[in-house]
User: Fold this.
Amino acid sequence: MFESVRIRLTFWYAGVLALFLVVLSVATYFIFWRSTLQRTDSDLSELSDAFLTTVRAELEENRGSDALKIASQVAIVEHNFREHIFAILDARGAIVISSQDLPNHDSVPKDLLSSDAFVELVKRLDASQYAWGSMESGGSSYRGFTRKFQARGQMYTLVVLRSLRQQQQMLAGVAETFAWVIPISVLLASVGGYFLARKSLAPVVAMSNQAGHISAANLHERLHVKNERDELGHLAGSFNQLLERVDQSFERQRRFMSDASHELRTPVAILRGESEVALSKTSRPAEEYRESLNVLHAEAQRLTRIVDDLFTLTRADAGQYSLEPSDFYLDELLHECAHATRTLASSKQISLACEIPEELPIRADECLLRRMILNLLDNAIKYTPAGGRVAITCRRADSEYELSVTDSGPGIPAELQGRIFERFFRGDNARTHSENDNVGAGLGLSIARWIAQAHHGRLVLARSDSNGSTFTAFLPALVSAPSPEVAKAS
Ligand code: ADP
Assistant:
């Protein structure tokens, strides 16, 4: 039952409301009780003042031996409100006169003034000039006020008692009202709260039903957002954004898979075709076998390169490529790469110039940086016509190295420049160079850019026009090591 948010919300709501009402009722009851008591106390004190004023006035007129008794009798009659009991005690505590002594005064319980509780109350209050206190007798509660006064040179104590029956009845009425108002309010509020929770959560239920129907097959579907500005609208909006990202990622994966299989299909087809031709006759001249094997070897190499590139990118995407940083000199690595590509360049009569200052220490994954530089050099040589020029430059600018590969090729058309870093993207010039064994799968620049980013750097096409292109990699001239954490492709 408590698994439903609606029920839980309702219970919480009802519980908090009940607690609040109980605390409020207790506080109200207490405040009411205190103010009633305070009012009673001040009434008793005022009444005692009035009583003594009457007594004193009567004493002025009456000078006999029973003067105090008579004066008190007059005062009791004058101030004889119902529920009030007066008693005057002498210095020894004996009652001189009380309401009980008046004829027809049957509202005073018989043994109230002789009860232990009364004696206790008087004794308790004896110490001070005036005091208030409560007592219980014969099942009733009384509030008492005592004060000392002097009459005819003697000390007396005036005790005024008031029955608390009325106040208690009032308080009982208040408590009774709370006793049925609280449960009924909590019940009504719970029913209301349940329906409110049901109504408020209805869009969530609808959203969850909709979300339950979304699968890989209909990832393009989105949740219906009623009000974009409320909390549920935000939730639905965030969920839709998540779906959008998942959809895009799915789409990228799908495209990657289809591009990858497309790229792999060509060399595999060539391998199969060439081997079928070679095997179609039982015997051929050795020269023909050698030619076929050369083709098979070149295609196998191409396949290896594509599979290798794909593997790198998939691992980078999955965040599983750990960099292996080491300290080395970037200038040495650049010279090494230039040396490795010099034969390829000279086979196309392309001059390869290096403008690299000495002593460029760096901390990076040497293998990956080599791959990035070779990719850039490879492209520069591949897309530069015979007799052209390729230059490698490197300089330190503030806290980073600016490493550029410039060629004198035909450049990349402006409309394609934004796409060259996409996976599997190949420009028209790539196809015109397909007679070349070195034809790529359109992954070289994506990998090169990822390598730069994995080193917290970046790779950009700095310039490309009819005079050639310049690719520039900005790499942090690291003081500390590049973080060996898993580098993720963007
Ligand atoms: P590829 O394997 O086709 O070389 P890349 O990702 O390395 O793939 O390059 C993507 C495309 O960018 C290439 O097909 C080519 O059209 C263009 N390109 C890259 N480098 C150069 C360059 N130096 N000069 C002209 N075009 C280039």
